[in-house]
Amino acid sequence: MNRTAKLSGALATLGMAAGLLFTPAAASADAEATLASPVTLRFADNTTLSRNAPGTVNFLPKLATTVSGGTWSGYVQYNDGSRVNFCPSQTVNVSSKPSKALFVSSTKGSWCP
Fold it and tell me: Which residues belong to the signal peptide in this entry (predicted)?
C-alpha cells in the first residue's frame, strides 16, 4: 500500500472520530425530568410522595388526599383496582379510598385537554 492511501485512510478515520466527538447529544429522559416539575401525591397522614420521572411507584395501601400533576399526567390506582387520572398543572381530590400506586406518564394522557 502506498503512503498516499495510508495517509488518506488515516485522515478519513480522524475525520469520522472528530465528527463523533463534536456531534451534539440528543436530549435524554433525564434532561427532560430535570426541567419538569414533580407529581406530588399527598396522604392523609401528612406525608407526600413526589415523582419527577415517568414510571410506576407501588406502595402499601394508604389513604391519599390529593395529587398535583406538576408537568406530568398519569393516574393514582386505588387498592380495589380502579383509578383516577390527572393532567399537567391539575390538582385532583383522591381521598375516597386507599391508594396503592402512582403512574406517571412520559406523554400527555389521552384524557387531558
Answer: 1-29
Rounded to whole angstroms, the Cα distance separating 18 from 91 reads: 49
Q: Which grid coordinates belong to 40?
A: 406530588
The residue count for the chain: 113
pTM (2 decimals)?
0.68
Which tens digits make up the pLDDT trace of 69-79? 999 999 999 99
Contacts of 91 (CB under 8 A, 6+ apart): 66, 67, 68, 69
Instruction: Count structural domains, the chain.
Output: 1
CATH number of the domain to which 91 belongs: 2.60.20
